[in-house]
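Objective 1b: paired records.
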Amino acid sequence: MAKAIRMYETGGPEVLRYEDAEVGDPGPGEVRIRHVAIGLNYADTYFRDGTYPVPLPSGIGVEAAGVVQAVGAGVSHVAEGDRVTYTGFTNTLGAYSTERLVPAAPLIRLPDAISFETAAAMTMRGLTSAYLMRRIYPFRGGETILLHAAAGGVGLIVSQWAKLLGLTVIGTVSTEAKAELARAHGCDHVIDYSREDVATRVRELTDGTGVSVVFDSVGRSTFQGSLDSLRRRGLMVCVGTASGTIPPFDPQLLARKGSLYLTRPALADYIADPAEKAELAAEVFGHVAAGRLRIGIHQRYALQDAVQAHRDLASRKTTGSSIFVL
């Protein structure tokens, strides 16, 4: 019988339950998929703790790769036996499972050169990195960016992609081991935020000018420092809230700090158009297949160990990408 992780209440990792799961036949617009590998993302913790509210009981997880076992009426872009990957939001919630029914629309056919494990480790992170590097800002070679959580899954991909575009990357980390990992993936300068003031160090590294763009996935604890790291008319990209949501502020603050721009993008809005999603996917998969982007899978878990996996995420023990292997 299929297995799945479900939750009947929100809270800490202990609310996750490993259970038997019935999987029926796909209805119109659906497929039945057998998972081979499942992505573990920090965003999953937001569903678990109620930051992203969903009706309960609920499955969890939004990203996985596997093989199509059956297709419902009206499904034409994938067929039985296809290797596929997917990511999404509430429309794909329930990926922590060995088999499941899922809407066909989010599915992406997997290139032969990309393994299931690599796909599970990179579909969300890769598409996120793709829109950050190709849609958010018109990067020109020679510019400098600040990248928080540089040793995380998205951080390691963005660092490498930035080097392909001729950018200088300043990354922030919390340990020397993470600093070494960030440097190995393209960071030109690494700041240990547990020992150094980020904005002060950024100004030193940029001769007082500041950076063109900040990618901030941390949120509350880094927000002010990120703004103080930007050059005049620089762009603050809020891509996550690992330390908590950013408190309300007066937009006049952006003017006082140099007519700054601020955006809070979401992946869903950059892959809503099938043509744009296909374009971004082709670019990121092409870079990975050609070896221009390396995807590091640093943690592998069994599905029944989801509680421990979430504990590791919460304690910031993880680096790079984490997956469940079936």
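Objective 1b, second protein:
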Amino acid sequence: MSSTTPESSSSVDVVLIGGGVMSATLGVFLRQLQPDWSISIFERLDSVAEESSDAWNNAGTGHSALCELNYTPQNADGSVDITKAVGVNEAFQISRQFWSHLVENGVIASPRDFITPVPHMSFVWGDANVDFLRRRHEALSAHPLFAGMAYSEDPAQLAEWMPLVMKDRTPGQALAATHTLNGTDVNYGALTRLLFSYLVETAGCPLHTRHDVQDIKRGPDGRWQVLVQDMRLNTQRTVNARFVFIGSGGGALSLLQKTGIPEAKGVGGFPVSGQFLRCTNPEIVAQHKAKVYGKASVGAPPMSVPHLDTRMIDGKPALLFGPYAGFSTRFLKYGSLMDLPRSIRADNITAMLAVARDNWPLTKYLIQQVMQSNSERMSALRDFVPTARSKDWELVVAGQRVQIIKKDAKKGGVLQFGTEVISSKDGSVAALLGASPGASTAAPIMLTVLKQCFADKLPEWEAKLKEMVPSYGQTLANNPDLCAQLREKTTKVLQLA
């Protein structure tokens, strides 16, 4: 998707920075809620959805905590805490409702262009892990958001659920898995392009690719002055905006710092890169039709939970395994090696040094991952696919993630694994920082942006918001009937049955 004709005015109501799923989602929300507002979008690359939203750059799971074990930590007494899993699943249900609204109203013509039903599984081995998974299933399956989750330790049942994983596996090993048919695969790159297509072609919002936002500062009138460079023509111009959203992935931190808002003080970033093994043999790809997640290694970040992942990309099935984490000083896949050094400021260096001091297991893990040989990567794959051959798999570079570092009164600084909206007190600028669960929760995250930045408009927008997200203002976790009703409806609209 290329740039549209530049708008004649240098003043707009809203500027969206970044051509990813976050900017696209917020843009659609605002266009639906306030169609008279002018919206301009700026993307540094040649087209939208080329960074973290691209299908090859993210896991595409449709994070709903059905299979991701890192969302259900085990307590010291052996019980399993499902609090975060419930929150993540509820957030994904909001995304499903939002997407269903767009399908029903013709914004998206065919849901199968971006979302596909795929079983979600958790798989473990070893007595202690089997006990953990059994407890996890007992806790989750009793909750309405996780209704229908099955559990088994029977090798015959496991072979039916995941034949590739069980083929030629050593007999007698303690194994267990959970299985649910409510899972999905989401191509966030395709979804992003669909949303921007609506914004540009139907809503008339100018999209400027190959435009790099270089500075954001307050103007004398209180509006934000956004300095943009046209990378094709090597020219600059300033766009004035009442509201600016910085949704440029790892690049959001540096732009947030340039705003000078007090809320950005003390915030830093820790970049983590990723790689996957991609199967090149169609016969093997056809043998596996599920997302199978295992347990992360000690010291591994949440985004590094190993999984054997069925994907649907450009209408074709694909099979990935990983991720293998790594370290780069880039904040974006197509960023600069100077991104990390340039992000260090007097107000965040203490927090960043404290995180470096307190996170040696993570540092050690990343060093080990960077130094891995292909045979070591294949060894990890064979824990999931005993019959895996090197000739059937190739290494691909995934997206770049930047975890949030924030000041902490006791520790000096803490490394956060998640996403966070940071906005100015007056709500005129907001930035999204962080990683997982990321794209899967774009809709609820953008509802957070609306609440933080447009509180005065919410009463006026409430009826429309409830039309777009029927559970708006309610909690599905505490309303089993509404949960079942909306799951049934979104399953039908999104063609997931």
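The chain is about 30% helix and 25% strand. The chain has a mean pLDDT of 91.
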